[in-house]
Amino acid sequence: MCKMERFGNCDPETADQEYCIFHKPNKSEEEAREFWKKFLEKFKPRVEEIEVDGEKVKRLVFEKEVNARGFVFPEIPKVAIEYKDKKGNRWDQRFSFEYAVFKNDLRFSSSKFKGEFSFKEAIFEKYAGFKGCMFYKEISFDNTYFKQGYPS
Predict the structure, then answer these.
(1) Residue pLDDT, tens place only, 74-100
(2) Helix, strand or coil for residue 129?
(3) Within 13 Å of residue 105, how many CA atoms lie on the same side as its CB?
């Protein structure tokens, strides 16, 4: 059983291991790709195309609560992560939180971010919990909008 089962958000397919894929501390490159694919499959964001400075950009829109407490976020792979939302919109590029929209609560408390991450121009419409997070490399919140105030 995953040592982090107390968070109640383990990956069911790997929960019988010492750590499920979401909580595993040191992921190989292959496991990192699996992590990001399963992250998208678990939280099922909508893929949306917007215009930024005259260019079309894809972003992820998370409609439901994102409970990723205790997750160990690996370096984002340089290869495309393939995902299709329920309406058939495709995400077939490198994973990114840039321009993402979180319409419900976001719970990243006690998580570890092993790589560089950007939440540039992301929108957090409700609670955004980052309490106890550890950031091992650079993290950016440039022009990020927190509708309910600064995250806790």
Answers:
(1) 999 999 999 999 999 999 999 999 999
(2) strand
(3) 10
* pLDDT > 70 fraction of the chain, expressed in percent and rounded: 97
From the DSSP assignment, how many helices (H) and strands (E) are in the chain? 1, 15
At 113 the three-state DSSP class reads strand
Q: How far apart are CA 24 and CA 4, in angstroms?
A: 9
Q: What tokens appear for 44 in the block? A: 């099922």
- Cα angle vertex 11, ends 8, 17, to 5°? 100
> What is the pTM (predicted TM-score) of this model?
0.93
Is residue 73 packed enough to be buried (19+ CB in 10 Å), middle (13-18) or exposed (0-12)? buried
Q: What is the DSSP letter of 32?
A: H
